[in-house]
Amino acid sequence: MEIKRKKLLRPARLIRGDTIGIVAPASPFDKVKFYQGIAALESMGFRTSVSENLFITNGYLAGTDRHRANMVNRLFADKTIKAVVCAKGGFGSLRMLSLLDFQSIVRNPKIFIGFSDISALLSVLFAKCGMVTFHGPMVTTLADATEETKKNMFLTITSDIKPELKPKKGVTIKPGIASGPVAGGNLTTLCHLAGTPYTPNFKGQILLLEDKGEAAYRIDRMLSQMKLAGCFDGLNGLALGSFEDCGKLDEIFWIVDDIFKENKIPILAGFEIGHGTNNFTVPMGLVATLDADRQWLAFHEPATVSATGQ
Predict the structure, then answer these.
(1) Which residues are designated catalytic?
(2) Is this model's pTM higher than 0.70 or not?
(3) Are 295 and 171 members of one domain?
């Protein structure tokens, strides 16, 4: 079943003193890193809201599916919460997608940030609600995040800049220029959405992919599965983030070039997005231009709106 996308909703940008709600949609987390990440958010000038229920565990999950979904639903419905940042990725986001209150989320759009396993939520919230989401640092990853990563996150969610990303060591796999909404995230997570009611449809979009700890043959298998499922039909462009501990990058780039050999699209690799040293924040669902020749990804408008809607 294809999800019909709604009108694009850009959430309100944050100001110092706003409250960020913390949610755990996937795995349990290390408390030391968690509180270090909370300190990082508070050093940016934000308040944080941490429920005692956040620390509930259920095996390798941060509580039951219903519990984790209710946490997401409750934070979106709470008018005092201006943004939601995920505590950790790991595993489990896909399990609670059908329990989300999408109607409530549409009525209360707000900044939602995460990556890795959280890509399932980023993808579905954009597809189902038309809401711009943010592929970026989580609370536990902020504990060890570089200053560049934290500064980029802060500017993206608090200012009226039009985000622009330029890889320091870009690799042009296929030349060209294309525009479209940016979508995607973690390859493994997106692949496991295929065949579900939330199967990704990247037609007319710029697809961003990253991963960690996946051998080259598994990356080949996942891309092949998504290609056979039609996920890449009508794709406008492809941007590759970090592929940490995935073997030789040249081999991954060859696989990508081969899988997309029939697609006349620009493909640019080397973005500092994902599990690498830097993890820059990307507005998912926002229209951008990918220029694989000049090696940049430039968004057409700010990721957020002011309180007056500008």
Answers:
(1) 116, 210, 275
(2) yes
(3) yes
